Amino acid sequence: MHIKKGDTVIVIAGKDKGKKGKVLSVNPKTDRIIIENVNMVTKHQKPSMKVQQGGIVHKESAIHVSNVLLFDAKAKAGTRVKFKDLENGKKVRVSVKTGEVLD
C-alpha cells in the first residue's frame, strides 16, 4: 500500500474532496484508511462503563485508499507514489511529481 500511518494526504474524490489530513490508521486487507477530520459520521453512543456520558458522538470513518493522494510539501499538491530500490537493498517511496524520496 502506498499510504502509511502518519502521512499527510489530500482527498481527491467524495464529499470531502480537497481536504487535507493526517492518516490515523491503515487497514491493508480492506484498502481503507482513517484520516483526521475527514469523512466524519454521527454515532449515537449508549452510556456504558467505558463511556459514562452517552449521546451523539462525531468520529472519523474509513475512506478507500484510491480516493486519496499523498501530499507532497515540496510541490504543495497531491502526488502519486512509485517504489524504488536503493543500492543498499532498501525499498523507498518516491514522489512522481518531484522525484524526491519520501521515506
UniProtKB/TrEMBL annotation:
Residue ranges annotated for the KOW domain, each copy included: 2-29
GO cellular component labels: ribosome
SMART domains: KOW
Keywords tagged on the record: Ribonucleoprotein, Ribosomal protein, RNA-binding, rRNA-binding
InterPro entries: KOW, Rib_uL2_dom2, Ribosomal_uL24, Ribosomal_uL24_C, Ribosomal_uL24_CS, Ribosomal_uL24_KOW, Translation_prot_SH3-like_sf
Role noted for this protein: One of two assembly initiator proteins, it binds directly to the 5'-end of the 23S rRNA, where it nucleates assembly of the 50S subunit. One of the proteins that surrounds the polypeptide exit tunnel on the outside of the subunit.
Record family assignment: Belongs to the universal ribosomal protein uL24 family.
Description of how the protein assembles with itself and partners: Part of the 50S ribosomal subunit.
Full protein name: Large ribosomal subunit protein uL24
Protein source organism: Fusibacter bizertensis
Encoding gene per record: rplX
